[in-house]
Specification:
Layout: E1 28-33, E2 49-50, E3 55-58, E4 65-67, E5 82-84, E6 88-89, E7 100-106, E8 108-112, E9 137-141
Parallel strand pairs: 8-9
Antiparallel strand pairs: 1-7, 2-6, 3-4, 3-5, 5-7
């Protein structure tokens, strides 16, 4: 895991995907494999800040986590574990992007599905979290 100093520029945290703060006080840690996340989809291409509200799933080899994706073949297609609870800076002080980062996640929450940051994970998307298998406990509102 990269414990280097990071540099970020954010405009505030967008938690519109949460219908309430239920579950935030019980957030758990996960370590993400940043190479599985796509610039412009999962994190801002300019600021390199990972969005909150991304459904994540365990990668079979190595035990790290990446975005839930039904087209993946590394374990992330099976079931999602949780949602990223906060935005996470990926940019290191030297300008490089972290390879691994720790993040707080929620395993139970009330989700405002249309506000999820990844379109493919919204209702009707290719990796629809409302119909996908999960080890968490979520209520979805539309």
């Amino acid at each position: 895991m990269d414990l280097s100093i990071t540099s970020t520029s954010t405009g505030g945290s967008d938690k519109t995907w949460l219908a309430s703060d239920h579950g935030l006080s019980n957030a758990l840690p996960r370590t993400l494999d940043v190479t599985k996340f796509v610039s412009g989809v999962h994190y801002d291409a300019a600021t390199k800040v990972l969005k909150s509200g991304i459904a994540i799933a365990k990668i079979t080899a190595g035990g790290l986590y990446g975005p839930y994706d039904t087209t993946a073949t590394d374990g992330r297609q099976t079931a999602y574990d949780s949602f990223t609870a906060v935005e996470v800076p990926l940019l290191l002080a030297n300008g490089a992007t972290s390879a691994k980062v720790a993040v707080a996640v929620v395993r139970h929450a009330i989700i405002n599905t249309p506000a999820l940051p990844v379109a493919a994970q919204r209702a009707g998307g290719a990796s629809d979290v409302t119909t996908g298998a999960t080890s968490g406990d979520f209520v979805f509102e539309s």
